[in-house]
Amino acid sequence: MKRIVASAVLFLILLPSLRAQQQDAPPSTPEEKEKKLVEYIEEKVEKLSSQLGLEYWQEFYADSTFNYNLHAMQDELEKLQKSGVQNVDMYIAVHDKWDEKTYEAFKGFLTPEQWDKYLKGGAFREKQARDKRAGITPEKPSKKSKKKKSK
Description:
mainly alpha; 5 helices; flat
């Protein structure tokens, strides 16, 4: 299973360069990459805002978090690629590191209700998968204790 996930992540990372080679197009310029990343961040913030009902200041924090973390992750992945690293686990570790930082940042500015929606929207499953890959025992969702009615 780990190999399948690793292969899928590597495929997604290398997909743009594979497309460029297939089309015999020159590699995209740094400006084009930046534009695509900014558009992606804007879409993510808009989606989160509509799903979670973010306030203006929360949108600012989400945008700032995505901007910093995704740029840093992209830089780190490019350094790995330029140094010739072929170990998929290293690429996954970098991705997981920055996803975890985003997760922790969001925990700091979302309300409890928004946090629950965020977790139910897929963040909890992603966190469990990251923890499993890192060898950490995944968190269990808190179950509300049911009180028995006495007669």
